[in-house]
Write a structure and sequence with these properties.
The complex is a heterodimer.
Chain A lengths: L8 H4 L7 H18 L1 H21 L4 H24 L4 H5 L2 H7 L4 H30 L7 H25 L7 H8 L4 H16 L4 H31 L1
Chain B lengths: L3 H6 L2 H33 L13 H28 L2 H33 L7 H22 L3 H33 L14 H33 L4 H9 L1
Helix pairs in contact in B: 2-7, 3-4, 3-6, 3-7, 4-5, 4-7, 5-6
Classes of the chains: A mainly alpha, B mainly alpha.
Chain lengths: 242, 246
């Protein structure tokens, strides 16, 4: 395993010598390094996104008029599913090699460590998905006005999805087959993000100002950013205690 | 303040013995309320001028939907109490509330579909309230699935309590979002029975039914918790004596 070789040095040294900032920085670096070593974990959600988008013209109709009507909703639903699939491994390797226990034992608050881990998860899954989404918009004949809103809504929306989904990942980390269960418990919680994300794109395509729906997505993100780490930290403590 | 009652509440044995005395009373009050409500609502309440007799399903539908939503909060609050005070009794209430809530949500959906067929001409419409109820059902099923996934009861309890609390924060957001989504996609051509404009002669039996459903819910919850107590305390001497006496 590659992950084991990257030690959480700062957590092992006496608390007086490490500040919160340096701990979080080392967690951030470590997470990024692991993500870049396991590039398939980063690429797979994007490939999934691409493949499911390809299924749509095959299953529904290749006609541009039909596809452009459905494109805003389809792109958002598929991006949401790709996010869900990427969540299963979020805490898994840390749980198995004991890093999670060290994070909990650390003198630094688990809340911030979790926050950094989720941010890195978004940087390595949600952000790449957002970046490729416009290309997939071309494949689904998304009208030109929809591209920037699609990009903006996914940028804010996938970050919310990462935070909310991480609660599910933390709850199911100790289960051997947590993947499907994680999707079942988290998908209902994704409903508001999906509604406002897809509506932002649809508004833009129809020529209606979309600032308000984008702002609501921003509210969801702010709420998830502040509150979700509380639930994630609680769930991780519970999973490690088992 | 005397907190003894609160600590007693945490004892499965005390709960079991107390509720043994309450259960028959609760059941008889519930049955009377339900009987009065059903006979009054189905037999004596006036017919609706537009919907005819089909509106009478609200006497089941509305109370079920009422308690399905309230039940989620019962579950979440019980979970929170369990987490804060480490009370196993409270976790038992949470565990019992999940399937009961799911059944009531399902009942509300089914009665809604039965009412929709003669009124709207279709079993299913993506109406805001129906969609919200469906998502509520998913939330309940998620808690039940998580409960079943863990080998250890204690871990399952904590996991479900966290999920229920996260759900509680989300339910108002989900409801508002779905409401907004509905107004965006469908102008209000379909309107449910306006509960606020309901005639008193129709509303009184409905109130009786709601009270009856509250009784039924409490009775089911207690029954479920008592069964759970017997199962999880089956190794203790008082349960063994109880079983031997029967």
């Amino acid at each position: 395993m590659n992950n084991q070789s990257v030690a959480l040095n700062s957590n092992l040294t006496p608390p007086s010598t490490t500040s919160l900032y340096s701990t979080l920085l080392s967690v951030f670096r470590r997470e990024l390094r692991i993500a870049f070593r396991q590039q398939s974990d980063m690429l797979n959600p994007i490939l999934f996104f691409l493949m499911v988008v390809t299924m749509m013209p095959l299953g529904i109709s290749p006609q541009a008029s039909v596809l452009s009507e459905l494109a805003p909703g389809l792109l958002w639903v598929i991006a949401l599913l790709a996010c869900l699939l990427s969540l299963d491994g979020l805490f898994r390797s840390d749980y198995e090699d004991g890093t999670l226990e060290q994070c909990i034992l650390s003198t630094q608050p688990l809340y911030f460590i979790v926050l950094v881990k989720v941010i890195v998860h978004w940087l390595t899954t949600g952000l790449p998905l957002t970046l490729v989404a416009p290309v997939l918009g071309i494949l689904l004949a998304l009208p030109a006005d929809g591209f920037i809103p699609l990009w903006l809504s996914l940028l804010v929306g996938t970050a919310t999805l990462s935070f909310v989904g991480a609660i599910g990942a933390a709850l199911t980390v100790s289960l051997r087959k947590g993947g499907l269960l994680l999707s079942l418990i988290i998908m209902p919680l994704y409903v508001p993000v999906l509604i406002f994300g897809a509506s932002t794109v649809r508004y833009a395509v129809e020529g209606v100002p979309y600032g308000s729906t984008l702002a609501v997505l921003g509210v969801f993100f702010a709420l998830a950013f502040v509150l979700a780490p509380l639930a994630i930290a609680g769930a991780l403590r519970m999973s490690v205690e088992e | 303040m005397d907190w003894q009652w609160f600590h007693r509440l945490g004892s499965p044995r005390w709960f079991y013995e107390k509720t043994s005395r309450w259960m028959p009373w609760l059941l008889s009050v519930t049955l009377v309320l339900l009987a009065v409500g059903v006979v009054w609502g189905l037999g004596y309440a006036p017919m609706d001028s537009k919907q005819g007799n089909s509106y009478r399903i609200i006497y089941i539908h509305v109370p079920a939907a009422f308690l399905a939503l309230a039940g989620y909060y019962v579950m979440a609050i019980a979970g929170a109490v369990g987490m804060i005070w480490q009370m196993k009794m409270s976790y038992m209430v949470m565990r019992a509330a999940a399937p009961i809530g799911a059944i009531l949500t399902f009942l509300a959906l089914i009665t809604g579909a039965l009412w929709g067929k003669p009124t709207w001409g279709t079993w299913w419409v993506w109406d805001a309230r129906i969609t919200s109820m469906l998502i509520l059902l998913f939330l309940y099923l998620g808690v039940i699935a998580l409960q079943g996934a863990y080998q250890q009861q204690q871990t399952a309890n904590k996991a479900c309590a966290i999920l229920a609390l996260v759900g509680t924060v989300n339910i108002p957001i989900i409801y508002k979002s779905v409401d907004w989504w509905f107004t965006l996609h469908q102008p209000a051509t379909l309107k449910l029975v306006g509960e606020s404009s309901i005639d008193p002669s129709m509303a009184y039996p409905l109130l009786v039914m709601i009270a009856g459903f509250y009784g039924l819910y409490s009775w089911l919850l207690m029954h479920w918790v008592r069964a759970d107590i017997l199962q999880s305390e089956s190794k203790t001497s008082w349960v063994k004596e109880l079983v031997a006496a029967k």
